[in-house]
Amino acid sequence: MSSAITVVAGGAGLDRLLAHVATPGTAVIAPRSVVPGAFVPGATMVAADVESRTPGCSCCAVRLDLIAAVERAVLRRERPGHVVVAVDLDEPAAADVVTVVYTLLSDPDLARLVRLDGVVVAVDPVALATRRAVGLPVLRRAEIEALAVADRVLVGRADALTPHVAHDVDALLHAVAPYAYVLAPARVPVGRADLFGIDAWHGVPHHHQPSTVRSSLGLELPDTVVLRHQGALDPDAADLFFDRLVTGNAPRILRFQGVVVGRGSVGRTCCHGVRSYAMSHPAAEDGDPGPDNLVVVTGWGLDVDELVDDFREATA
């Protein structure tokens, strides 16, 4: 049986966040910038070692250090029920959450050992508000990409903000994180079950429409396209749609996820992918058939009209 694996990303205070998940039965893999000890007992420390499966291709980059570390964590006598991979967003060499997710999903050995449960990103709203107040970019590129693929956004120190600033930060996070629930422990208690065991990368994607606040942020943000159709798809046209989606946009895709049903099929199919990686499996495995057809795609500089037209071809 595979172990669940969660990617936890954040900046300052990441060690304290990990302290809440380093429970018995959980293996923690963390960057060397996080000091092991009281906060992260028994953590495996790693230094980013990135290599591309295809030389010169950024969409095929993998973290070799994580492949080795996760294998060691899982293939031990007392196999952990959950593995947490920490990403320090303040550490340039290790801040690429999308490469971490791509590595965990696309490596064939890891795919047999672990199942991606979700991506949790911790943010400091005081730091965001301060950057905005002094005219600095509110979010760095690594933070934007992490939030763009996140399933949970954990907001620390929310009680230190005025209501007006808290509203602005909340709007910002909803604009940048299309798949995520935004949680603020200072306002509403957050338990382990809110962050782990969520199985967010399989089945119907949780998503919301991008907020109109995007235009006022002064930030370059990824596009998110929500494609829907009631009724069965033409199987051949649907296959061509996904082929074009991945081959034509691989360097730009941060995440896609969906549930579709083909004409003549007895069941729906779940799919998800990152960059050049894509997979599918019967929706019945997740116990949730979802809507007839829903595909959500997030990436940099997507041709939205082209994606809509391609998906419409599959529905004809």
Task: Describe the overall structure.
It contains ten helices and 14 strands. The protein is globular and about 55 Å long. Helix 9 runs antiparallel to helix 10. The model has no long low-confidence stretch (mean pLDDT 86). Strand 11 and strand 12 (269-274) form a beta hairpin. It folds into two domains: 3-207, Rossmann fold (3-Layer(aba) Sandwich); 223-315, CobW-like, C-terminal domain (Hypothetical Protein Yjia, Chain: A,domain 2). It has helices at 14-19, 64-74, 97-106, 108-113, 125-133, 141-148, 163-176, 192-195, 235-249, 304-315, and strands spanning 3-10, 26-31, 44-46, 50-52, 61-63, 82-88, 114-123, 152-155, 181-183, 223-228, 253-260, 269-274, 277-282, 294-299.
In short:
With 316 residues, this protein is α/β, with parallel strands linked by helices. The protein is built from ten helices and 14 strands.
- Could you state the order of secondary-structure elements as H and E? EHEEEEHEHHEHHEHEHEHEEEEH
What's the helical proportion of residues?
Answer: 25-40%
Assess the beta-strand content as a share of residues. 25-35%
Question: What is the strand tally?
Answer: 14
Q: What is the count of DSSP helices, taking H or I runs of 4+ residues?
A: 10
Mean pLDDT: 86
Number of domains: 2
Protein structure class: alpha/beta
Radius of gyration: 19 Å
Q: Which strand order does the major sheet show?
A: 3-2-6-1-7-8-9
CATH superfamily placement of the largest domain: P-loop containing nucleotide triphosphate hydrolases
**CATH-defined architecture of the largest domain:** 3-Layer(aba) Sandwich
User: Distance N terminus to C terminus?
Assistant: 40 Å
What is the CATH topology descriptor of the largest domain?
Answer: Rossmann fold
The gross shape turns out to be: globular
The profile of the biggest β sheet is: 7 strands, parallel
Query: Uncertain runs with pLDDT below 50, 5 residues or more?
Result: none
CATH class of the largest domain: Alpha Beta
